[in-house]
Amino acid sequence: QITTLINHKDKPKRSDKTLQAIQRVGQAVNLAVGRFVTVGEAIANENHELKEEMSVACIEARRAGETIAQLTDVASLDHPESDSHITIFTDKTGVVKAARLLLSSVTKVLVLADRIVIKQIITSRNKVLATMEQLEKVSSFQEFVQIFSQFGNEMVEFAHLTGDRQNDLKDEKKKARMAASRAVLEKCTMMLLTASKTCLRHPDCESARINKDGVFHRMRLALEQVIEIVTDSRPNGENEMAPISIYSGIKEFKNKVEGLRENLYFLSKENLSTMLEVILEHTEDFTDSAYTSHEHREHILELSKQAKMELEQLVSVWMQAQNQKTKDLMEDLEVAILKTCQCMNELKREVHSAATTLAADLLKYHTDHMVLKALKITGVEGNLEAVAEYTCKLSEQKEQLVEMCRLLRHVSGTEPLEITCIHAEDTFQVTGPQIISAAETLALHPSSKIAKENLEVFCEAWESQLSDMSLLLREINDVFEGRRGEKRVYLSLPRPGKHNANLKALKPVKLDTEEQAKIAKLGLELHLLTSDVDSETEKWEDQENEIVQHGQGMSSMAYSMYLFTRGEGLLKTTQDLFHQAEIFATEGTKLASALHALSDQVHDDDKPLLLLEAEKLISMCKQLQITAKASAQGKSATFTKVDACILKTRNVMTLLCQLLPLCCKLLRKNKVGNGCLKPAPPWKEDRIRAGINARTPERRVDTLGIKTLENHVTNMTFLESK
């Protein structure tokens, strides 16, 4: 709006329409500033240490907004240039000054608000650390229960704050590091609970103490990393040294080589030689690895040798071209460039094949978790000798998986995936010894239920990481094959371009921040409706019932659409959202068919109502499908289509909330099937757990295990009341 005002053209004749438009823009700017400043002033009142600075910035912004409104108050003037009243036409520089002051003061408010958010995260972290210190020192179970309950609440608060911050980060590398740290905190919370309980139950057990200390240490490191990311700092002023991967090295090397076409003098031959040496040094991670096949090793060595020869030839022609720029020499240089780049591409392909083949084989081999199962069995038997034997096997498995992560990092293709590989490597390095200490504790105390539960928790973390590696491997392959952005885990979503011939002409886009803000309320309503539907489906005893399954599927898809409105989740572009809306509508139509089938089994009195609701559902789903398939050209039209899809999805979910209890009531009344409602679970945490399990993997990772953390807190509160 400000740009519109600044760039308007001074014309001798100005129509009433132009004058009114300028006045509207000026008023809109002033109103927007007023709303913005109101929020800033509220923040200032809650944070006294920054109140003065924030208040000054807010006053400046308000003054600038009012000035713009006054200068654009031109609609009522027939001849504004002859009037004594100063306007945008008589003093355009005044508008420019006011706009600059406005942008400057708005930036100040944003920076100050950001400082407050950072302070909130640091304060929350400090609370968590202080409570962790108390937890480490407790000596009675009753005291532990009370403190852990407080700790759980503090972790939930920290999870919310850091989750919002992660979503706001623009740097994909920082976002990946934050996600990794928060994943550690989520998993370690449950580990801390069981490890601490085991230590309290067996205070003289050295392996139990080692197990607990490892969890506390890892949580502290993760908390520290979150603060480093949030404050953009390193301890003792260190610079973060990111390890260079083969992929990034080859990419940079090729860019330099291809740059010779434009400029023969922009770098030295020593620079190119050094870059190649670094890449070839990293290939030694593959050739020296005991897990690389003989065939891959031989091919990598051959290509490394060839790369050196191609570079020598390139340098020779390059040096000649610098002295004598003839047509023949330039053609020779082009050939040398092409041959060098082709050799590097082949090397990249070979290391990718070596890493991904190893990863696929290892993940397949370890999918049965035989070593973990054996450790649990021998631990319960108290067979120390057998436990020692299987811990050796687990250590070997750990080394294999760590090596796999190191090699995958070299071929991951993007910085966020590199960070995910590093996080996976750390997880295997730390979790392996923790499983061993937990198994030793169980073997020493085979009748201890808490020691058994503790081992289960650490084994689950290991299995979970192996499962994550399968997804990571798939993503790495997607990047290599150029499928980045077409994630295969779109719930039931088809890939763009595969099922709709018109999609190739459309350019997929994301919602910008302003559009997300406009649609936020609608998204929140959708979120609440998914919770209501989940609550209804959880009440059904027969979870295999077709109606329940369709309802759960629709709820999961609606939830992914809600995440899209926040700029999160697997739906990355508007085109993804439209695909999801189509599949959601199809699922709704299938549900309507199930309702028709149910109507044949209920009494005649109930049939009309059920059929009426089914027809309503079919009609709404058809409307949604039409909207999702309609073409939309341009930013405004695309956003209108997004808004319509979310709105119609919300309407379907509202109807679904009414349908599920109605079907349940009719089933109970007519005694159809295996029953409808299951008995209420004895404690709240069972319901929470059921709610989590009913959701998709995408849904479980919405925030840092907030549901899981709340589950821990509920569990401890129940124990305390006992």
Automatic annotation (TrEMBL):
SUPFAM superfamilies: alpha-catenin/vinculin-like (SSF47220). Keywords: Cytoplasm. GO terms for cellular component: cytoplasm. GO terms for biological process: cell adhesion; Rho protein signal transduction. It is found in: Cytoplasm. The keyword Cytoplasm applies. GO terms for molecular function: actin filament binding. The keyword Cytoplasm applies. Belongs to the vinculin/alpha-catenin family. This is Alpha-catulin. The gene is Ctnnal1.
